[in-house]
Design goal:
The complex is a heterodimer of chains A (231) and B (115).
Chain A (H helix, E strand, L loop, with lengths): L9 H25 L5 H14 L4 E2 L5 E2 L4 H8 L1 H19 L7 H24 L7 H27 L1 H4 L14 H35 L14
Antiparallel strand pairs in A: 1-2
Chain B lengths: L2 H15 L2 H8 L11 H8 L4 H6 L20 H30 L9
Helix pairs in contact in B: 2-5
The chains are: A mainly alpha (231), B mainly alpha (115).
Chain lengths: 231, 115
């Protein structure tokens, strides 16, 4: 899901930076106001986990690969704003050091995986888990469903960004200047592989880690809205 | 053992296992992720590289392209697995360090944190 350099034209990648930037600013403010300094190591753990889990490319035999992102997991533990920051750091390091995702596409990749994914996934998690106890089954189920839907939301956004390129920029003969596949190809392909396979990978990773933490230290999941620990 | 210690150990385990993310796709004949093809792959699929794409795609030369040592991207799987692990260590360390620095600057200090 890491858009490389050259797939998005300037008008798209500049716009994506412009949309992602306010989220980075607000995330900084929210973290400043609500994240406690003893939670910083957990934020670092979450960011490093996100970085590493994205290295586990899951193959579709004879086809493409995909991977989990971990954004919803971090959102469940530390809130969606903290997840936005943690996953953005992971994506920026991936782009700069490893060429995984383009430099010009950092805004778009952060928008998809560090904004849309954690916020959508966290919303679903809250919806499913409600006001249940930190040890409740509804927590890990909510996290798993949130992971599934969050990753699919990110994949859909990515597919739309790819798919609008032929419309936005083509030469006189109609050849696309950037990503060559239209919405009618990009959206069904990306949606199918994430709905059928990678979404479940994200769900299993997110649900399993949350279920483990419920047994190891359920207080980590105790961030009810009333308490001022949200970031 | 503290939960956070266990979680850091879990991350080390992920680093060691990370070559699975390289080996399984190779063994099962899975290529790039959809929409993440290199210029060569695009050329094979579409017959040409879109003109705008070829301009922007060379904008940045990553020091460890695709988690491999520069110039050795076509090495054998064991060699690539080694560079994958090294990349995992360097990348995770960079991500954790950056996040701690950002967190230190931003996070709210508590009384219990005072020296």
């Amino acid at each position: 899901m890491h858009i490389p350099d050259g797939y998005l034209g300037p008008q798209t990648y500049v716009a994506a930076y412009a949309v992602a930037a306010p989220f980075w600013v607000i995330a900084s403010r929210r973290i400043n106001r609500t994240l406690r300094s003893r939670q910083v190591p957990m934020l670092a753990l979450g960011a490093a986990f996100s970085f590493l889990i994205m290295m586990f490319n899951v193959p579709i035999p004879g086809g493409t690969t995909g991977h989990a992102v971990g954004a919803v997991l971090v959102a469940v533990l530390l809130g969606p704003w903290a997840a936005c920051m943690a996953v953005s750091v992971a994506l920026i390091v991936q782009a700069v050091l490893f060429g995984d995702g383009g430099i010009t596409a950092i805004g778009a990749n952060c928008l998809n995986m560090a904004v849309i994914m954690p916020f959508v996934g966290y919303g679903v998690y809250r919806l499913v888990s409600g006001r249940s106890e930190a040890t409740s089954r509804r927590r890990w189920i909510g996290a798993a469903v949130g992971g599934y839907i969050g990753l699919n939301a990110a994949a859909l956004a990515t597919a739309i960004e790819f798919g609008i390129q032929p419309m936005l920029a083509h030469d006189a003969a109609g050849h696309a200047l950037y990503a060559p596949y239209p919405l009618s190809v990009a959206v069904p392909v990306m949606a199918a592989e994430h709905l059928l396979i990678f979404g479940f990978v994200e769900a299993i990773v997110t649900g399993m880690v949350v279920a483990y933490l419920q047994r190891a230290d359920a207080s980590l999941l105790d961030r009810t809205p009333g308490k001022k620990v949200e970031a | 053992m503290k939960t956070s210690t266990k979680l850091w150990i879990g991350l080390i385990a992920l680093v060691i296992l990370s070559p699975l993310g390289l080996i399984l796709p190779a063994k099962l004949g899975a290529g790039s992720a959809w929409g993440e093809w290199s210029a060569d792959e695009i050329h094979k699929m579409a017959g040409c590289v879109p003109s705008g794409m070829s301009k922007i795609s060379e904008i940045w030369k990553a020091p460890l392209p695709d988690y491999a040592f520069r110039g050795q991207e076509d090495s054998s799987l064991p060699a690539l697995s080694f560079s994958y692990i090294v990349s995992g260590i360097l990348g995770a360390a960079a991500v954790a360090t950056l996040t701690i620095l950002i967190g230190r600057v931003l996070a709210r200090r508590e009384h219990s944190d005072a020296p």
